[in-house]
């Protein structure tokens, strides 16, 4: 089911459910289209006017999707689709690996003509694309304990820079790609959500972000479109309900405001901004909207 919100005479996509998990769909920044992974393992795009089309092909350079998945039921033809700044799509795939234990590669596909090519082949199993830097257009990818900065402007992608993030749990990269929010790992290799930090991706400077007494942070948050506010679910150390904390980033200060909710949220929830003064939490079977008006 596709849920819409109306802005003037324009309908914008607000959420899709049910979905397999939060990584199996993505909504464009303007709300005009959404990606989702269908039951047949293909990526589809749906538009706010109700039109839709299949994005991924049935065959790629002699490899047939059905044949590959018949011989290896776990073979990933496409997964974790997301929009790129240019409107095209990146996704995870085992292509073009034909082995019995195929490795994953990050791919890019053109929405209009279906042209696709690999962007980056991860070195570790723990990886995820984070976003782009608006200053130079470089692609930011977390690969194990390294941030890889990739130039993917052509079909011959290359590594531009590597940033060491050992001992850090990466939470989110701002839309402009300059601010990276993370938590530290503790001595037991667990995430310490007592404090979170911000790294400047350009000069690598780190600042500790303000916190709310008697609460801990989570990995569930979202940047606003401008990249100057970050909304994140915080959980009480004992009793009480979860709250939404909003970090405000301006040139001189970083401030934090909190907003009451009437319940608790599972770790699989997805946070999104719903306009300038509200945040939605997608619980999978329901969507809760929290007003940021005080």
Commentary on this structure:
With 294 residues, the protein is mainly β. It has a domain of 121 residues. The protein has one helix and 27 strands. A four-stranded antiparallel β-sheet has the order 3-4-5-6, with no helix packed on it. Strand 23 and strand 24 form a beta hairpin. The chain is globular, with a radius of gyration of 20 Å. It starts with a strand and ends with a strand.
Features:
50% strand, 4-stranded antiparallel sheet, 1 helix, mainly beta
Task: Provide a brief overview of the structure.
The protein is mostly beta strands and 294 residues long. The model has no long low-confidence stretch (mean pLDDT 89).
Q: Which sequence of strands runs across the widest sheet? A: 3-4-5-6
Question: What is the N-to-C succession of helices and strands?
Answer: EEEEEEEEHEEEEEEEEEEEEEEEEEEE
Uncertain spans: none
Query: How many DSSP-defined strands?
Result: 27
User: Per DSSP, what share of the residues sits in E-state strands of 2 or more residues?
Assistant: over 45%
User: Could you describe the largest sheet, including whether it forms a barrel?
Assistant: 4 strands, antiparallel
N-to-C span = 32 Å
Give the overall pLDDT as a whole number.
89
Rg result: 20 Å
Give the SSE layout.
Layout: E1 2-7, E2 10-16, E3 25-27, E4 33-37, E5 43-47, E6 52-54, E7 59-60, E8 63-64, H1 65-71, E9 79-83, E10 89-93, E11 105-109, E12 116-120, E13 127-132, E14 139-143, E15 146-151, E16 158-164, E17 168-173, E18 179-185, E19 191-200, E20 206-208, E21 215-223, E22 229-236, E23 243-249, E24 254-260, E25 270-273, E26 278-282, E27 287-291
Antiparallel strand pairs: 1-2, 3-4, 4-5, 5-6, 7-8, 9-10, 10-11, 11-12, 13-14, 14-15, 15-16, 17-18, 18-19, 19-20, 21-22, 22-23, 23-24, 25-26, 26-27
